[in-house]
Design brief:
Layout (H helix, E strand, L loop, with lengths): L3 E4 L2 E4 L4 E7 L7 E6 L6 E7 L4 E4 L7 E6 L4 E6 L8 E8 L11 E4 L3 E6 L1
Parallel strand pairs: 2-11
Antiparallel strand pairs: 1-3, 3-8, 4-5, 4-9, 5-6, 7-8, 9-10, 9-11
Length: 122
């Protein structure tokens, strides 16, 4: 079973930037997605990348602020986040797509990483 490990979270001020990384224990051609969950809210899709075809998807709320990328040599997927706002606060998870479904559907993904926290304050 592949394991995913996120890192790069932290506290930033409004307008700041963070880059999250997600490293898989083994190579895979499966799509990887970033999700986030704010306190009291449902987990939502942020971005997805399919390394085999370099396909990318973004949630509407990203609005050009985030970039998802990958390096197949290191089995790592990054999420570069800029112009962070308070509503971006939450725990960010990466997950590997395991079955058919829309890229933003959590039930399509397994396994999940443990999450990394992002806090954006003014």
């Amino acid at each position: 079973q592949v394991e995913l490990v996120e890192s790069g979270g932290g506290s930033v001020q409004t307008g700041g930037s963070l880059t999250l990384s997600c490293t898989a224990s083994t190579a895979s051609t499966n799509c990887i997605a970033w999700f986030r969950q704010a306190p009291g809210r449902e987990r939502e899709g942020v971005a997805s990348i399919c390394p085999s075809v370099n396909g990318k998807r973004y949630a509407d709320f990203v609005m050009g602020r985030f970039i998802v990328s990958s390096d197949n040599h290191t089995n790592t997927v990054w999420l570069q986040m800029t112009n962070l706002q308070s509503e971006d606060t939450g725990t960010y998870y990466c997950a590997r797509k395991a079955k058919w479904g829309a890229w933003y559907q959590t039930q399509s993904y397994d396994p999940w990483g443990q999450g990394t926290q992002v806090i954006v304050s003014s």
